[in-house]
């Protein structure tokens, strides 16, 4: 993509490329130029709250990644593009094709993390940090997000005060501690100070003023303190950099609050840092010896983080000594490599071959992975390996999801809305009938992901379903479902047993336990409990089983069923519409053909009985018309917005496991057809039954009948009418 850019933007691109070349192990100039142009083109018509072009934001984020958290060129490209998917509607596949899959995944990860906090109240900061880690597989997503947040904090003054506080709180509680965990000291301090500025402006300005007012005195004292140290270091020919340690306002404020002491008593306002250019840790102890000879150390202020690094791999010697005029001053001694790791954390591992150690359980796997690569490969190989795929394996086996109120719940990977429902309360799980994930209704077996917001829909009539056991993940969900199913089964068994005993008593029959077991096995049940359950669920015709010689009078029963069915069907459709001048006449339906909504129909004007509605293919009607009796009027079933008719289907076939599920799937998967009712009876390994469904028209009904005929085990499918 070639985009015409101004001289100003050419200079910006040149500065970015130079920064990359200075700090990164390798630079793909063409890809960075391409990303620069795509980002510029995507944002050229957008502006920030400050009024400056929006493109300045991704550009500055890329500069932070290149200069302050120097990772690799892939990270710089991802930083340039981190907002194009969300703001410009560019497809992630497009980024993958134009750049590569890594860039696409990092951009997608940064976009998702940004969406997590929208409208959420921060109640469990540590869980939010785990949530972020659970959402990403590539550590560079987190690091680009740090850079994004850092630039947003640097330009927060232009945002509405209420939003300033929300973003500052989020930064202080989540991003700053997170940056510390990754060892990004410089980023952590700046994020804390910027957040402090917007959360407690009065205290921030007060401490800033006091530090500024005492600056000259401090500098004069530090010069006096360091003069003999500098002479000794030169005498011993040690290469070093010496300077005052920058004082971070938020750390001063925290010490004042935690120690309940005034500004003047915070001893480490006076501090110097000695950075040794050689990378031998023993040299740090040598310099410590020099300082202890010049000034008296305070034993309980000594900390050796070289022998025992902090859990984020920070290494340094901290000692406090009594300087001129009896004032306390803190001295930090570290090598250049230790300093870069302290400031840039995980990013510094790209640069140094390092034997890492960590006591932090959460980061243990990650640290081991990095150590193995560095120890078992040459530097070039290690760099190539890490840059190709720096993966996290911290919280990939769990997900963090939100309630509608913003509370976080932790669940195993591959959990579903049912697991979430039981995590809230067993009562919510038991009555869970549906779920919304991020505002959209989804099936109960949908896999949910970190960052999803889930709302459970309940119904007092809903009960746990056996099929739930096929997809739930949590022990809590499984045990509650099983508990309910066992209880429900017990009720069914007792109910079936009662029905059975009443039936054999009525027929004056006698069944011992052995005879009953034989009957159950003959009917293909594993045991009598299953037999009783089928009786309770009305799946067996006990009259046929107990007295097969006496045939139930099926025709009248069928006619009764049909009469009931056509009443429901006609009522659901609404009244027939009569055209012409006969509208006032009474309407009834001809018994000879029993028209059902959806049938092509015609009205016949009778003498004394109003209009009779016939099917157009009715034999009686055709006979009357042939005789020249032409008292017909046009009629139609009512048509409304996508109205559905109730239609009946008679199905016969071989009774086999899972058949009801196959019938249901065959119907509901065609144009989302809804089933109104199912009535199926079994006997002698066969079944027969009726299904009533909602259909748009006869074509819709015929398609369903055709689909049912293809179901294994079904040998007869007919439309339910008076002849069946």
Describe this structure in words.
With 724 residues, the protein is of the alpha+beta class. The chain folds into 7 domains: 193 residues, Hypothetical protein af1432, CATH 1.10.3210.10; 142 residues, Beta Polymerase, domain 2 (2-Layer Sandwich); 34 residues, no CATH class; 76 residues, Ubiquitin-like (UB roll); 64 residues; 62 residues, no CATH class; 75 residues, Alpha-Beta Plaits (2-Layer Sandwich), CATH 3.30.70. The chain is 49% helix and 15% strand. It has 28 helices and 21 strands. Strands 1, 2, 3, 4, 5 and 6 form a 6-stranded mixed beta sheet that branches. The protein is elongated, with a radius of gyration of 39 Å. About 8% of the residues have low confidence.
Helix content: 40-55%
Q: In CATH terms, what is the architecture of the largest domain?
A: Orthogonal Bundle
Report the sheet with the most strands, covering strand number, pairing sense and barrel closure: 6 strands, mixed
Number of domains: 7
Shape from CA axes? elongated
Our measurement of the CA-to-CA distance between the termini, rounded to an integer number of angstroms, reads 70 Å
Calculate the mean pLDDT score and round it: 76
CATH superfamily of the largest domain: Hypothetical protein af1432
Q: Name the structural class.
A: alpha+beta
Poorly predicted runs are: 349-395, 549-560
**Can you tell me the CATH topology of the largest domain?**
Hypothetical protein af1432
Over the alpha carbons, how many angstroms does the gyration radius reach?
A: 39 Å
Strand content: 5-15%
List the total number of helices. Answer: 28
Name of the top-level CATH class of the largest domain:
Mainly Alpha
Number of strands: 21
């Amino acid at each position: 993509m070639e985009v015409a850019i101004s001289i100003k933007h050419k200079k910006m691109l040149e500065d970015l490329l130079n920064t990359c070349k200075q700090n990164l192990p390798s630079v793909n100039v063409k890809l960075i130029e391409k990303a620069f142009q795509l980002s510029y083109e995507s944002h050229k018509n957008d502006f920030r709250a400050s009024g400056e072009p929006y493109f300045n934001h991704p550009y500055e984020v890329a500069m932070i990644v290149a200069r302050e958290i120097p990772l690799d060129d892939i990270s710089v490209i991802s930083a340039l593009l981190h907002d194009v998917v969300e703001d410009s509607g560019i497809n992630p596949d497009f980024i993958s094709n134009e750049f590569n899959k890594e860039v696409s995944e990092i951009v997608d990860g940064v976009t998702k993390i940004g969406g997590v906090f929208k409208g959420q109240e921060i109640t469990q900061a540590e869980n939010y940090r785990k949530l972020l880690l659970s959402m990403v597989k590539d550590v560079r997503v987190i690091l680009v997000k740090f850079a994004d947040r850092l630039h947003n904090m640097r330009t927060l003054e232009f945002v509405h005060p209420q939003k300033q506080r929300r973003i500052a709180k989020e930064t202080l509680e989540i991003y700053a501690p997170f940056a510390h965990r990754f060892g990004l000291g410089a980023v952590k301090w700046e994020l804390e100070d910027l957040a402090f500025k917007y959360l407690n402006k009065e205290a921030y300005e007060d401490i800033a003023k006091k530090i500024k007012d005492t600056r000259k005195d401090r500098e004069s004292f530090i010069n006096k303190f360091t003069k003999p140290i500098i002479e000794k270091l030169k005498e011993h020919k040690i290469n070093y950099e010496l300077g005052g340690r920058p004082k971070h306002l938020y750390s001063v404020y925290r010490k004042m609050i935690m120690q309940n002491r005034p500004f003047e008593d915070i001893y480490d306002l006076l501090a110097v840092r000695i950075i040794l250019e050689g990378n031998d840790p023993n040299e740090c102890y040598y310099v410590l010896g020099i300082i202890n000879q010049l000034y008296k150390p305070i034993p309980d202020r000594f900390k050796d983080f070289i022998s025992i690094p902090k859990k984020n791999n920070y290494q340094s010697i901290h000692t406090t000594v009594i300087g001129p005029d009896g004032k306390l001053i803190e001295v930090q001694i570290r090598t250049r490599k230790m300093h870069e790791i302290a400031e840039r954390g995980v990013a510094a591992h790209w640069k140094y071959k390092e034997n890492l150690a960590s006591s932090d359980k959460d980061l243990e796997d990650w640290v081991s992975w990095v150590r193995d690569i560095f120890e078992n490969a040459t530097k070039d190989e290690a760099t190539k390996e890490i840059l190709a795929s720096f993966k996290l394996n911290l919280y990939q086996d769990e997900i963090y999801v939100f309630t509608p109120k913003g509370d976080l719940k932790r669940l195993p990977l591959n959990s579903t809305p049912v697991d979430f429902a039981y995590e809230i309360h067993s009562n919510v799980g038991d009555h869970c009938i549906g779920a919304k994930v991020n505002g959209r209704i989804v099936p109960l077996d949908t896999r949910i992901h970190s960052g999803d917001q889930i709302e459970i829909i309940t119904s007092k009539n809903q009960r746990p379903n056996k099929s739930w056991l096929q997809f739930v993940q949590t022990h809590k969900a499984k045990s509650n479902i099983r508990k309910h199913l066992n209880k429900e089964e017990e009720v069914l068994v007792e109910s079936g047993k009662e029905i059975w005993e009443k039936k054999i008593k009525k027929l004056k029959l006698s069944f011992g336990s052995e005879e009953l077991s034989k009957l159950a096995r003959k009917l293909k049940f594993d045991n009598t409990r299953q037999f009783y359950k089928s009786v309770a669920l009305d799946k067996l015709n006990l009259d046929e089983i107990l007295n097969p010689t006496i045939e139930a009078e099926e025709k009248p029963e069928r006619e009764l069923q049909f009469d009931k069915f056509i009443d429901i069907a006609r009522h659901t459709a609404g009244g027939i519409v009569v055209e012409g001048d006969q509208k006032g006449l009474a309407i009834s339906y001809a018994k000879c053909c029993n028209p059902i909504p959806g049938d092509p129909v015609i009205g016949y004007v009778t003498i004394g009985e109003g209009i009779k509605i016939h099917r157009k293919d009715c034999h009686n009607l055709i006979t009357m018309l042939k005789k020249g009796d032409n008292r017909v009027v046009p009629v139609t079933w009512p048509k409304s917005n996508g109205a559905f008719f109730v239609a009946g289907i008679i199905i016969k076939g071989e009774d086999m496991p899972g058949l009801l599920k196959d019938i249901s799937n065959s119907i509901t998967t065609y144009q989302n057809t809804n089933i109104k009712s199912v009535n199926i009876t079994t006997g002698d390994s066969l079944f027969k039954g009726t299904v009533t469904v909602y259909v748009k028209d006869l074509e819709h009904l015929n398609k369903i009948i055709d689909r049912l005929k293809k179901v294994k085990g079904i040998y007869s499918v007919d439309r339910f009418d008076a002849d069946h």
